[in-house]
Amino acid sequence: MSNSPAESPSLEEAPILHVDLDAFFASVEILDDPSLRGKPVCVGGAAERGVIASASYEARRHGVKSAMPSVVARRLCPDLIILPGRFDRYEEYSHQFHGVVNDLTPDYEPLGLDEVFADLRSLRRLGVRPLDAARELRGRIREELQLECGVGLGRNKLFAKLASKQSKPHVVDHQLVVGEGVVWVSPELEERWIAELPVRALWGVGPQTATKLHQLGLRWVRDLAKVDEETLARHLGAAMAATLVAYARGEDERTVTVHRELKSLGHDQTFAISLTSLEEVLSQCRHHAGVVARALRGQGRVARTISVVLRFDDLESLSRSQTLPFGIDDESALTSVAQALVRSVDLSRPVRLLGLYASSFLERSDNQVQLSFDVVTEGDRRNEAIEQSREYQVSSASLRDALDDIRRRYGASSVGVASDLASQGLRIERQRGSHAFGPEGPVK
Ligand SMILES: [Mg+2]
User: Fold this and answer.
1) Which string of DSSP letters, residue by residue, matches 287-327?
2) What are the phi and psi torsion angles at 141 (to 5°)?
3) pLDDT of residue 434
4) Residues forming beta bridges with residue 351, ordered by sequence position
5) Distance, CA 194 to ligand 1 centroid (Å)?
6) In angstroms, rounded to a whole number, what is the distance separating the alpha carbons of residues 121 and 14?
7) pLDDT tens-place string over residues 322-344
8) How many CA atoms are closer than 13 Å to the CA of 423, on its beta-carbon side?
9) Is a pLDDT exceeding 70 seen at residue 407?
């Protein structure tokens, strides 16, 4: 099968990248115990009914593959070392791997621990070429994680994933053949390339579906491309039939789904001149609350936990937080809680840094702010603040939506609380303290 031509594709031709770490679990085990290098190593179940989860290339030379029963693997390779697996360790590597991809683009979608799809289109502004990005990514993974990987580039997810598979080392007659590392499927190659693949290579075709397809006389993707979708639907169901026929024609509408599990969102600021009065700190609370509230609303979320962090001139820090029975995204509601928290702190030392963070998110549509609750205790300032924030959250909803609309249309500086207005209009600080965590998909 022919591979990528020499010329370098544009982002329009190769917007989707797929990267897959080679023999991931086994490679991590070898990195942590160099005495395993060059030996046939697997991670999997060593017991009678165990299955191989990951096999080193040395093991693959003997015909050992993932998903193979360990009994069969042992028969093929009597010296096989089967290790039980340390998923905490693989997750550490996986986080590092996602970090390297995130440096390339935040538009990525992890698939299991060792694969990622990335949409490169946001790199257009930087003039990045997909092949350069792919090579750089591969170099960094090799340098920083000491792991090998294959990278595929294509017009859609289907071709990107098929290409990364093609880019990897493979075994021919018990000998390891080095892969190209990076493969791009050009539009000219697409049709020829996919036609030559066995149906089993297509995404979603497991052993059972493959058997059914074989029984129908469909062995190759080119057979699938010719088949009548309705006939196929009678055997595989409408959804599977439609997907496979589309794949066989090289069509794949799936987008890279960026899923960032945001744990906290916040804003902090170190002051050039430390704040020495309560009034100044309270005023900064309102400013920070505005920034955080707008960020929350931009994401359609409300937060139940509000925290403030203060750092003093002697560099000692402290934090206070309050969890509410409902979520808030309203500036006055956030201000009310944050100010109550600040008032609970001894402010006899100058304040060098103030941070305001929101966490414990709810979708805005799931928020039950209207429900009455019964926590107000006479004289308790925090509970008063909670009750006040609820009133703000409920009463100012329509006003808030109107102001957000104005900001969207005329820019962030057009609407602000009067006290926030500097000569340049309302200044929006760069948001810090927003952490993106890659999701931890199921172990494959
Ligand atoms: Mg892999």
Assistant:
1) HHHHHHHHHHHHTTEEEEEEEEEEEETTS-EEEEEEEEEEE
2) -65, -40
3) 29
4) 275, 312
5) 21
6) 9
7) 888 888 999 999 999 999 889 88
8) 0
9) no
Q: Under a CB-based contact definition with an 8 Å cutoff, are residues 381 and 340 in contact?
A: yes
115 as an active site residue: the answer is: yes
Residue 160 CA to ligand 1 centre (angstroms): 14
This prediction's pTM? 0.60
Task: Name the catalytic one among 58, 115, 148, 331.
Answer: 115
CA–CA separation, 54 and 33 (whole Å): 16
Q: How many CB atoms lie within 10 A of CB 385?
A: 23
Say how many Å lie between the CA of residue 25 and the centre of ligand 1.
9
CB neighbourhood size of 40 (10 A): 23
- From CA 127, how far away is CA 235, in angstroms rounded? 47
Domains of the chain: 24-86 (3.40.1170.60), 190-259 (1.10.150.20), 261-437 (3.30.1490.100)
Which protein residues have a CB closer than 5 Å to ligand 1 (ion)?
20-21, 24, 114
Which residues is 110 bridged to in the sheet? 116
Q: How far is the CA of 299 from the centre of ligand 1 (A)?
A: 33
C-beta of residue 227 within 8 angstroms of C-beta of residue 218: yes
Q: Report the residue count for the chain.
A: 444
Percent of the chain exceeding pLDDT 90 equals 45
Maximal C-alpha separation, the chain:
82
Q: What is the pLDDT of residues 246-297, one digit of tens each?
A: 999 999 988 888 766 667 788 888 888 899 999 999 999 999 999 899 888 8
Amino acid, single-letter form, for residue 394: V
Amino acid at 59: A
Paired sense of beta strands 81-83 and 41-44, if any? parallel
